[in-house]
Amino acid sequence: MKLLLSLVFLCVLATAATAESLAPDPSRLKLKSANVLVFDTAADRQIYAKAADEVTPIASVTKLMTAMVVLDAQQPLDETLAIDTGDLDYLKGSHSRLRIGSALSRREMLQLALMSSENRAASSLARHYPGGTPALVAAMNFKAASLGMSHTHYSDATGLSAENVSTANDLAKLVQAAAEYPLVREFTTTPSHLVEVQPTGRTLGFNNSNALVKNQSWDIQLQKTGYIREAGKCVVMLVNIASKPIVIVLLDSLGKYTRIADAQRVKHWIETGEALVIATPKPARSVKAKTAAVKTTKSRTHGAFEPRLDKVLAQR
Predict the structure, then answer these.
(1) Which of 45, 116, 232, 309 has a CB 3.0–4.6 Å from the CB of 252, allowing a cystine?
(2) Model pTM?
(3) 117 is a catalytic site residue
């Protein structure tokens, strides 16, 4: 019996050692985002971390918690909500096509807030929460604490305030909790959606703020993007990679394409164990005496590059 137990113990150790040896080497993953966590939810372990406990603004990633709290309240999803002056963004001056007086169902407001990060939709959801926006924000902070998100604080429902802060580790918990809500999974991964705005009957089309949901090589179960100047570009995702459910948190990414490129790097690294090299053009030489013609040429060259890189990344 003792011999049998010893053999079983050795087999368990060998299996664990084999799994560890097959894990991708974190040193091969070079990411540009400032705060990163890559978490294997099936194995319940992180496989890559970079400044994952640093508290930082999270922008519209906030809307995942907004949606969870709204759904927890079990208010009628077919109830009509209207945009009013209380939903205008006086903090950042962000644009919205939902004009004052526009009315949609709570379900559609929720979808636009999650899918295309519509700030006025999120604000309207908060105002129509029992007790209004202050009660919703209090519920958001209470739920964060209940999920063990000890370094997270919310001050509004949209994420426009830089006082909405968290860490990559905390946001991995948020993503896993949000994935328990079927509507959150559905709305965050819908590529586009048409709504008929009342009372005018005007039809508006909205697209997902994350282009990767349209990429067939990605199996995204849940995602949310975010951006304000203080937070940089952010994205969180629950995605199946190499038959594993993986949470990816990328915060404070500089540049237009960094968070997409970093997501591609993570996916390639998990699938192959190797680094993905994404070519970028060399910066133009600095010339002290530049003529107007040279400036124009450089401007055109830079502008022509961006769509090509975006197309390459979107196809991966």
Answers:
(1) 232
(2) 0.82
(3) yes
